[in-house]
Write a structure and sequence with these properties.
The chain is of the alpha/beta class. Helix content is about 35%, strand content about 15%. A 5-stranded parallel beta sheet has the order 3-2-1-4-5, with helices on both faces. Strand 1 (about 10), helix 1 (about 15-25) and strand 2 (about 30-35) form a beta-alpha-beta unit.
């Protein structure tokens, strides 16, 4: 299967996700969607929406909505949220999807997700 047919999701839309998405240029914009917990806070919602608009990607309102139909899921959250995000998202991930944890938490934290 070609990557062109994959649905790509980013959990967390901070610096890491923005850099990766920017690196693809406009090649994957129609495939990419994102969700960030900051969407639920008045003081940070506009920042996330502006970043998504700048990157020309779609925003989803919940983790479930984001991951349920995604093929490639990139978790780019802070280390203290990595385990929580992995546990929450696994409830909604479809069979055959890939989950990539791209944060700097300790290996022992990552092992808890298995």
């Amino acid at each position: 299967m070609s990557i062109d047919s994959y649905s790509i999701a980013f959990i967390g839309l901070g610096e890491a996700a923005s850099s990766i998405i920017s690196g693809w240029g406009n090649l994957r914009n129609n495939q990419i969607k994102a969700y960030d917990i900051k969407l639920h806070k008045v003081e940070t919602k506009e920042e996330i929406l502006a970043r998504a608009k700048e990157l020309n990607i779609h925003i989803k309102a919940s983790m479930q909505e984001l991951v349920k139909d995604s093929d490639l899921i990139f978790s780019t959250v802070t280390a203290d949220q990595a385990l929580k995000v992995a546990r929450e998202s696994c409830q909604f991930i479809k069979d055959g999807a890939y989950f990539f944890d791209l944060n700097s938490c300790a290996p022992s934290s990552k092992k808890k997700c298995i």
